[in-house]
Write a structure and sequence with these properties.
This protein is an alpha+beta fold. Helix content is about 25%, strand content about 35%. It is built from 3 helices and 11 strands, in the order ααβββββββββββα. The longest helix has 27 residues, at about 160-185. The chain is elongated.
């Protein structure tokens, strides 16, 4: 019965489509703190044991190709190379570049550059890359470890339930109009 109403009435079909899209589970843009410790292979070697930290925003549950993310370096041993503006080097990264499973980053193998490739940032977790940050002179790396991704720092909905509720209201309004038209036809 409902399918006949939807198929025979274009306005109800449109409202149904809007409702379906509106109340679908919204994708969530996830953000994480990341870090690695400067280890063997770092230059200067006096920075060994120091931590490099930052944030990564825009990941979603599942496979991520590494594009469209905001990556920020928050702290380094010298205070250099801070900030954002990192661009994915697709030739150097794997696909997927990141995998998020159950709200946790479980894989990272991504290569980013900044300042025309002078600055390099590598994320490595269960992939082939070791984490590293370099400006061509200073190199902080951890050849024995992985990039550590810690807890989501924010969940940003890419859709909203309010649009779903509005769609439900429109669907109800559409059904009311249909009912009124049907009642008016029976009275005549």
């Amino acid at each position: 019965m409902l399918s006949k109403i939807i198929l025979r009435n274009p306005s109800v079909s449109l409202v149904t489509l809007v409702m379906t899209l509106g109340i679908s589970a919204p994708a969530m843009a996830l953000s994480f703190n990341w870090s690695f410790e400067a280890g063997l292979g770092s230059i200067p070697d006096t920075d060994i044991g120091q931590t490099i930290t930052g944030t990564i925003s825009g990941l979603v549950e599942g496979d991520n190709d590494g594009t469209g993310l905001t990556i920020t370096v928050d702290s380094t041993p010298s205070g250099d190379l801070l900030g954002s503006g990192w661009t994915l080097d697709t030739a150097g990264s794997s696909d997927p570049a990141f995998v998020v499973t159950g709200g946790m980053v479980t894989f990272a193998n991504a290569f980013y550059t900044r300042n025309s490739g002078t600055n390099v940032l590598l994320f490595g977790l269960n992939g082939t890359f070791d984490p590293a940050l370099s400006d061509g002179v200073t190199v902080w790396t951890d050849i024995d470890g992985d990039t550590v991704f810690e807890g989501m720092i924010q969940d940003v909905p890419e859709g909203s339930m309010s649009s779903g509720l509005a769609s439900l209201g429109l669907l109800g309004f559409g059904f009311q109009l249909k009912r009124k038209r049907h009642s008016a036809q029976n009275v005549s």
